[in-house]
Specification:
Blueprint: H1 12-24, H2 42-46, H3 49-66, E1 70-74, H4 80-88, E2 93-98, E3 103-104, E4 111-112, H5 114-125, E5 130-134, E6 148-151, H6 157-168, E7 174-178, H7 186-196, E8 202-208, E9 214-219
Parallel strand pairs: 1-2, 1-6, 2-5, 6-7
Antiparallel strand pairs: 3-4, 7-9, 8-9
Length: about 220
């Protein structure tokens, strides 16, 4: 795997220790204009605001613990997750891949373009070293090298499993899967991936206890 991460936590215990420190000291806050709390379906997130704020602070802490040099995120939407990852490691290169489909706002039915929202968010935060790729993940057979790959696109079994296998082509040191507790999609896909695709490559896994659950997979 990518040797840029050789100074990272070597054991599950070290990762958990560093993660708990990073999440407890996290000062990151969602952008006031560009976050899940302001996007086209904001009411869903506002109804569970404390849980979602905790979730995104966990994203921040995972990224800070991993301290990646290059991040690839499969499933960007409006960039809210990327904001947390990159705020923790602003020097990292970032490649975000999504179909970036335009939706209509729930309040006034005006168009909500996630590609433009993400671009404006990154510009406002001052992130410079990034690329956004607008494509269907099923059209990709491989990814460029990266030490940290986030899997957070469609959560049905077929797409989640395909995304995990695609993530592996980046030769990552860490893979982070969001919404890993989904019994009807992501969870069985992760179980199959761990047993059939990377069984002999796993250093350790760490479950992150936020809304929907997250799973860190450390590859050797």
């Amino acid at each position: 795997m990518d040797q840029s991460a050789v100074d990272l936590p070597k054991s599950r215990e070290e990762f958990e220790r560093d993660f708990l420190l990073n999440v407890s000291t996290c000062q990151w806050e969602p952008h006031p204009l560009f976050s899940v709390f302001t996007q086209y379906d904001q009411d869903y997130y506002l109804r569970q605001a404390p849980a979602f704020l905790c979730k995104y602070k966990c994203f921040y802490a995972v990224s800070k613990t991993v301290s990646p040099k290059k991040i690839i995120e499969l499933g960007v939407c409006g960039g809210s997750s990327a904001d947390a990852y990159l705020s923790a490691t602003p020097e990292a290169e970032y490649l975000g891949i999504d179909i970036f489909g335009v939706s209509n706002r729930h309040d006034d039915h005006s168009p909500w373009d996630p590609y433009e929202v993400t671009r404006q968010l990154f510009e406002s935060r001052g992130f410079k070293n990034y690329q956004l790729l607008k494509t269907d993940l099923r059209e990709l057979s491989s990814l460029p090298s990266a030490d940290f790959v986030v899997v957070d696109a469609a959560h049905d079994f077929d797409n989640a499993y395909a995304d995990l296998k695609l993530a592996l082509t980046a030769n990552p040191t860490f893979v982070f899967v969001d919404d890993c507790d989904d019994e009807n999609g992501a969870k069985p896909a992760i179980e199959q991936f761990l047993t059939q695709d990377v069984n002999n490559l796993i250093g350790y896994t760490v479950r992150i206890p936020h809304l929907g659950g997250g799973l860190v997979i450390r590859l050797m």
